[in-house]
Amino acid sequence: MIKKNLFLFILVTVLIACSQQKDPIEKKIDDLLAKMTLQEKIGQMNQLTGTGLSDDMKSQIKAGRVGSVLNEIDVKTVNELQRIAIENSRLGIPLIFGRDVIHGFKTIFPIPLGQAATWNTQIIEDCARISAIEATATGIRWNFGPMIDVSRDPRWGRIAESCGEDPYLTSVMGAAMIKGFQGEKLSDPTSMAACAKHFAGYSATEAGKDYNTTYIPELQLRDVYLPSFKAAVDAGAASFMCSFNDINGVPSSGNEYLNRQILRKEWKFDGVLVSDWGSIEQMINHGVCLDLKDAGKKAITAGVDMDMMGFAYIGHLEELVKSGAVTEKLINEAVRNVLRMKFRLDLFENPYTKVTFAMPFYTDEALQKAKQAAVESAILLKNGNSTLPLTDKIKSVAVIGPLSDAPADQLGTWSFDAEPQHSVTPLAAIRNYYGKQVKVIAEKGLAYSRDTNPLGIARAIAAARKADVILYFAGEEAILSGEAHCRADISLPGVQSELLSALKKTGKRVVLIVMAGRPLTIGKELTEADAVLYAFQGGTMAGPALADLIFGKAVPSGKLPVTFPRMVGQVPVYYAHKMTGRPAKNIVMIDDIPVGAQQTSLGNSSYHLDAGDSPLFPFGFGLSYTTFSYSDVKVSKNELSEGDSLNVECTIKNTGKFDGSEVAQLYIRDLVASLARPVRELKGFQKINLQVGETKTVTFTLKSNQLAFWNADMVKRAEPGEFQVWISTDSQSGKPVSFKYK
Ligand code: BGC
User: Domain range for residue 408?
Assistant: First the structure.
């Protein structure tokens, strides 16, 4: 007995001693902090954009006034700047070089919205890994991505950079990107620190106009906009970035509640929180700070560790500390976060980037992955008379449209480092890979998406007349989406729609392929085209991917990561809406209202007179060349209690004529709760391959905590009552089964 007690005593003492022992990195930070002057600490909190080997940059680094440099991508310059930091600054603290590697560095993958349309976490992780291998070869160890702002407004140009409208889909896609960027361990030279951005609520911008005000009730913030960021913390994201917007009047860079209470206290995040470009300074424009000094004080108080190009910290923190307005403790905490990330990246031991003659760019593996990702990101929206894939009866195709041969535009937004000469366009791919099978008649018609030149149209029609089938590549130039590139009208730009009508009038079958940075309102085009493939902007290998899909070497499997509106006035339109007290029914469209009809409120319900109540396409939608049947959806038990889980399964059969992949989607609905709940919420998905005639059973495990939501007391809890659950091919179809939560 005594022996046993003694053993327990020793064990407890050892455990306590171990728990008190500092992480070696924290110990190193303590030592370094003890040696740093206030100015050197503030220097670590300063991020400047690259100016090459300018004298100013060199002298600032030497003086310890820079912690990080962004947008410097020449490896020799990076190494030389690093050498100055290591050898010529007093403490030799390494710099960290950052860049936006949003969907590829040299090899460009589909825009993130397109990547999300793959519903394939593995391919997304693989694309991010390749991006990291390419970018780190030039010394970039900090990537300002992924952007995980849940985006429900296609007018907003940055929807292109997002994973769409759903908190769950965005969470898992964001986590996959983080995994890929950061690799197995951050210390690996091919790993880059990920940066979950923009924290938070940026995408809820009013009228879809960039940088605009947002009003987000806390419940919605917690339920919709924050889950992807919490998932990013759980996935080990090394850093976060503030957003530009104000939420309910408080700009994110000065938002103590978001940055300290939620991010640090609730989520225990110990990485770096960097401002967005100038966002600290811009608090003056927001009208919440008097001047740059005031802005610096607000930002550090709110927990922003690093000032990206705002000059508030480097210009004013010293004086703020000296006057007692800011404590040095706050500075130490911020610097600790910055140094921790640098230690985790092993920059102190391995600050330099190996310069190799052959850079790992555009490798076969990278191009193959880029092609696969582009294949899986394309969504088949319509396939009248099985127009696609083209059979060998088709002897000639007319390749028309401004996106048919636009190497830069197919790369989409945020592709600064790519060289368009590496892009393989649809026209090039069709000629190269299918040119023996069919005669290719090429005539762009319009030189770019906004072109209105009538001569081009005439030439395109003449070309189309000579072909069996018209392949019309329409869409948006890359510059029409992305940061600050928002549109109030989200139809096809220019006269592309008119060109489609003219092509249709030739009597030939028309396949419309849309390459755009956002959902476009293509209701009219949908009725005119025989088949529609929505490809977003597919990157370097968009051409070969689309060619394979058109000619049947690949089968479409993409699903919409965002609802497509019929018209822009429906926005915001998303599948997980609430029911309302008067759900849409008895829809009478505008032209069916009798002239002089009396107003009545009887039987009225929630819809638009000119758009009805349905979107053009729901979230999760996407056709294939084959068909799938869903049957036998069942739950493993009828009751679920706290801490427990149940299985939901169903049988899916490939009932068509092609082997293909299907994304089975798991949705739930809480029928009666203390607060109105969405009509459906995505809780899981699985992408499966099925050969012709093959049947598979898919099983999801639904845990009780997946039923939880934030209630009026700001507690996240599942409430007892009846739930419905679906496994379906999109967010609107399928038959639910029920279970009870006790
Ligand atoms: C964007 C960020 C980006 C930063 C650095 C800003 O304008 O909002 O997303 O990471 O610039 O390029």
Answer: 370-550
